[in-house]
Amino acid sequence: MSVRRIMGAETEFGVLAPGNLSANPTVLSAQVVSTYDSLFHAELQAHSTAEWGYSSESPLSDSRGTEIPEKDAHVTQLTHQANVLTSEQIAAEALQDSGLYAERLNWDAVTMNSILPNGARLYVDHAHPEYSSPEVASPMDAVKWDAAGDWIAAQVVQRSADSPVLETINLYKNNTDSKGQSYGSHENYQMSRDTDFDDVIQGLLPFFATRIIMTGAGRVGIGTKGETAGFQISQRADFFEREVGLETTIRRPLINTRDEPHADSERFRRLHVITGDANLSHVSNLLKFGTTSLVLALIEKGVAPHIVLADPVHAMHTVSHDLTLSEKIALSSGGEVTALQIQREYLEAAEEYFSGVDEETDQVISLWNEVLDALETNLFSLANRLDWVAKYSLMRQYVAQGIGWDNPKLAALDIQYSDIRPQKGLYFKLVELGRMQILFSPEEIADAARHAPENTRAYLRGEFIKRWPEELISVNWDTVVARNQLQTEVHRLTMDNPSAFTAEQTQQVLNSPTAVEVIESLNNVQKEK
Amino acid sequence: MKREQIQQQHQQQNATDQDEISIAQQNSEVNQELLGETDDLLAEIDGLLEENAEDFVKGFVQKGGQ
């Protein structure tokens, strides 16, 4: 066991049309998805012309039933759709689509859903555009492919700003408008089905209540509507109301019980984590995915620290509001501990059982250690690594100049920290000024927007999207359905193991000329097994 | 106490004082530097901020999500 496991990141972006504040957010979100869908298809077309000789077939244009030689023309056309459609009409159209083509039930409505060449999904989730990263096999990769989603969001924003016809849209990687609304950035972790879910709950509650001291994104205002002036560690903490539950949008629970593995349900569980803040800092994000994966490994091994909090939800609020990191949290047994002490318990267990298992595990353990030490002794030394400390450090300088915590300037700073535009977002400015450490260069991140990880099934999904878009009928996390355009027979591939269908395993069959042949070859291999 | 010893002690005291002064000077230099950096940073940030913070914050209204 190690820090490595199948995992994924989901980001719901805040969406704003600065020139049209009353714009319908679902329509804006549809514009975001459609814009990127056409951008990457145009890029692929240029690419595939060179690499696979598809110029005479124009596969990408054909798949839409339209002739779209110029990406500008395509986007304009989509603009037109976005401008005239209400969210109800978009929803109605999606519904109609699913009625006509059962295979398209959730996935193939062009403006609402897009499967990307990197194996990710970009789609309209109610009133927000959401990027769901491809399945990755390690925390470092989770950070990289989550950042790829931010890069994609920035491309869309740039496109909308450049276009004379598109509504200008800004996107924000944060979790609240501080007017009572919150939207998520979720994590997904594959676990063994054998692990008792009660152990998962008991092991995670104290961890989730306290990991925000490393993974919080920082927030101006206390309370879901920012009723009290001040600063707190987490964007999300105030929106959690109970310990365990199925909901993700109301009465939010610390432990979400959604059981939707998108894989072999007898072998795997996909733990859907909804407590996380949206992190821009690579280090915060690495700590989020890395330490959580290690705690899950402790739980799976049956050696997680036995800490029972009197009230985990209250504890999470307390921890988020305590900038001194010294507030005591009540244990159910009657004692009291600090958030740092709880985190150290988990860290020590992880060190005991997983030190030395592999390089990436050691990297996470040593970073965890270093950051907990710095939180205790020299908080502002972390201003170049953790989102909340970076934000807090910046704002304190304004406060020192006499600006109060209730001043709208600080609330604006809070929002602008998460502005996804490299030239406007404060996070990106800090990176540019060398005041924020990065783990991946902008070039590596852009590359991850174009290419799937090679060591999960996302690789094969990405290859299907890149090579045979015209044959695909539907693509899902665990299925690919294709049809030879000259025939009626539908071919389905089920990918029920996220760790399979890697570059190594599929290299040979990918030499086939058609998607249908790839699917049939892989199905034969699976039958033989 | 012999005078020599007092003298020595006094000299040591002076040395300590000088050390302290030197440290204090360093600190103040560091602080000046930090202050300079801080001013530069805030100037950079101010250049990026939305012109009307109050309107911008009021206009940032989202629907709930997951």
UniProtKB/TrEMBL annotation, chain A:
User: PANTHER family, per this entry?
Assistant: PUP DEAMIDASE/DEPUPYLASE (PTHR42307), PUP DEAMIDASE_DEPUPYLASE (PTHR42307:SF2)
- Origin organism is Rothia amarae
Question: Looking at the UniProt record for this protein, which Gene Ontology cellular component terms does it annotate, in alphabetical order?
Answer: proteasome complex
Query: Which keywords does UniProt give here?
Result: Proteasome
Alphabetized InterPro entries for the sequence: Pup_deamidase, Pup_ligase/deamidase
Task: Tell me the GO molecular function terms.
Answer: ATP binding; hydrolase activity, acting on carbon-nitrogen (but not peptide) bonds, in linear amides; peptidase activity
- Sequence similarity: Belongs to the Pup ligase/Pup deamidase family. Pup deamidase subfamily.
User: What is the active site of this protein?
Assistant: D125
GO terms (BP aspect): modification-dependent protein catabolic process; proteasomal protein catabolic process; protein pupylation
Which named protein is this? Proteasome accessory factor PafA2
Please name the Pfam families in this protein's record: Pup_ligase (PF03136)
UniProtKB/TrEMBL annotation, chain B:
Q: Which GO terms describe its biological process?
A: modification-dependent protein catabolic process; proteasomal protein catabolic process; protein pupylation
- Identify the species of origin: Rothia amarae
- Bias (Low complexity) occurs at 1-13
> Segment Disordered: which positions?
1-20
Q: Which lineage?
A: Bacteria, Bacillati, Actinomycetota, Actinomycetes, Micrococcales
Protein name, entry field? Prokaryotic ubiquitin-like protein Pup
Q: Name one Pfam family in it.
A: Pup
Example GO molecular function: protein tag activity
Q: In which pathway does it act?
A: Protein degradation; proteasomal Pup-dependent pathway
Q: Identify the InterPro entries for this entry.
A: Ubiquitin-like_Pup (IPR008515)
What family does the Swiss-Prot or TrEMBL record give for this protein?
Belongs to the prokaryotic ubiquitin-like protein family.
